[in-house]
Design goal:
Layout: E1 3-7, H1 11-22, E2 26-30, H2 39-45, E3 49-51, H3 54-60, E4 63-66, H4 78-81, E5 85-88, H5 94-97, H6 101-104, H7 110-117, E6 122-125, H8 134-138, E7 149-154, H9 157-170, E8 173-178, H10 204-207, H11 218-226
Parallel strand pairs: 1-2, 1-4, 2-3, 4-5, 5-6, 7-8
Antiparallel strand pairs: 6-7
Bound molecules: NADP nicotinamide-adenine-dinucleotide phosphate.
NADP nicotinamide-adenine-dinucleotide phosphate binds near residues 32, 33, 70, 128 and 131.
Length: about 240
């Protein structure tokens, strides 16, 4: 059975884990508090999932989804992640992460920053532009008429192809936004960010816990990415 390591068991990590188990992937999931704290989640996920440490999740599979706060990437097991395809779901939220000068100055995209912290891994940005709530609501089998697309970015074409196959298996088409330097096209405040998957984009900030989601097909996502304007990250207030 194909395998997936997941580091981070919060909103995004657990949403991805549910899709992975549903897609018949064998999952090993980790968090910061240790495997015992994941007993309820693995019981819910069923026989296809088990809990472990971050090192075990990194060693478990060729592909590892990392869904932890941005600055916590520096805690992850670099040796075990070396050579792996790492799907990074993270965003830069200054209120949580503190101000990061290179990101505020637009010297790096968040994806480039993540790639620096995870030197040796082949990082692909994905799942960072969709609310955790919308992931199960919008996932569909391949070929469904109302399937949504997620953007991916990364500097290793082989890793990006592998990540695209994974995202497809989990329930979404992909659009290649380019190298990591293009990752800003689906960072917060860009048009292809979370509101693009909302039924009511204008009120998503208030209704993010109830918005039912709206499919975003490949062509519509491609247009949003192509027309994107780079967000003023230094002005980000959340
Ligand atoms: N929530 C969303 O809708 C959403 C949407 C798009 C992107 N994102 C981004 O995706 C990333 C994850 O978001 P989230 O909402 O899933 O966060 P979350 O609910 O706060 O969960 C974060 C997870 O990371 C784990 N973690 C923290 N430090 C760790 C470490 N050193 N080693 C291993 N695990 C560690 C935490 O472990 P414990 O459980 O033990 O604390 C927790 O399971 C963030 O960068 C976020 O900005 C979130």
């Amino acid at each position: 059975m194909a395998r997936l390591g997941i580091i981070g068991s919060g909103a995004i990590g657990s949403a991805v884990a549910r899709l992975a188990v549903a897609a018949d992937l064998e999952v090993l999931i980790a968090n910061s508090r240790g495997p015992e704290s994941l007993a309820d989640l693995v019981a819910e996920l069923g026989a296809g999932a088990r809990a472990g440490t971050s090192s075990e999740a990194a060693a478990f599979a060729d592909q590892v989804v990392v869904a932890v706060p941005l600055t916590r990437l520096r805690d992850l097991p670099l040796e075990a992640l070396a050579g792996k395809v790492v799907v990074d779901t993270g965003n830069y939220y200054p209120h949580r992460d503190g101000r990061i000068a290179e990101l505020d100055a637009l010297e790096l995209t968040t994806g480039e920053y993540a790639q620096q912290l995870l030197a040796g891994a082949h990082v692909v940005k994905a799942f960072n532009n969709i609310l955790a709530r919308h992931i199960p609501l919008l996932a569909r089998p391949a070929g469904a008429h109302d399937r949504s697309a997620l953007p991916i970015a990364g500097d290793d074409d082989g890793a990006k192809a592998a990540a695209a196959r994974l995202v497809d298996r989990l329930g979404f088409d992909t659009v290649d936004a380019g190298g990591m330097s293009e990752g800003w096209r689906f960072e917060p405040e860009a048009a292809a960010y979370t509101q693009a998957y909302a039924a009511e984009p204008s009120s998503l900030a208030e209704n993010y816990l109830t918005d039912p989601g709206k499919p975003l097909p490949v062509d519509a996502l491609r247009a949003l990415l192509a027309g994107a304007r780079r967000p003023d990250v230094a002005a980000r207030a959340f």
